[in-house]
Design goal:
The longest helix has 52 residues. The protein contains five helices and no strands. Helix 1 packs antiparallel against helix 3 and helix 1 packs parallel to helix 4. It has one domain. By secondary structure, it is mainly α. It starts with a helix and ends with a helix.
Length: 166
């Protein structure tokens, strides 16, 4: 079988897409991790500053209280943005993308078939779908988590029916 220049272009373009996506994803992972660490350090610094001002100076209680309230607010934001989970997700996705790129560049035969290149492309599509599902299930911001837990209609109905049966 002769090696087609078109197949070489496809292989090269797919490799470039995989490498570019992996690099971008790795950058996002670092940003999420650094932001998380920055927020946590800022939270601790606010706490230490408030304690120091309250204990060693005669600053207004409003100032000390204002700084002290920043500690839980910053920590709350950091935890609810799930930055560490997002950093881990981005690292795992980047690693998977690099594995696909490695497979495409080094594990396929010297002259791969169109089907072999298509298999890597399908694996890329599957990875994107799988990772998006995971993101939606575990990492997307959820406003419902901020309020009271909702009771399901079925639980209310069965509880009412059970009480009426007694």
């Amino acid at each position: 079988m002769t090696w087609s220049p078109e197949l070489e272009k496809r292989r090269g373009r797919l490799a470039d897409v995989l490498e570019g996506h992996a690099t971008q994803t790795r950058r996002r992972a670092r940003w999420n991790h650094r932001t998380s660490m920055t927020l946590m350090v800022l939270s601790v610094l606010c706490s230490v500053t408030a304690a120091g001002l309250g204990f060693f100076t005669s600053q207004s209680s409003r100032l000390v209280g204002g700084i002290a309230i920043l500690t839980p607010l910053i920590a709350y934001v950091a935890v609810n943005l799930k930055l560490e989970g997002k950093a881990s997700w981005h690292h795992r996705k980047s690693n998977a993308l690099r594995a696909l790129s490695s497979r495409l560049r080094y594990e396929l035969p010297e002259e791969p078939t169109a089907e072999e290149i298509a298999e890597v492309s399908k694996a890329y599509d599957t990875l994107n779908v799988t990772m998006q599902r995971e993101w939606d299930a575990t990492l997307s911001f959820n406003w419902r988590g901020l309020g009271r837990p909702e009771t399901s209609v079925g639980a209310q109905t069965s509880g009412t029916a059970g009480a009426a049966a007694k």
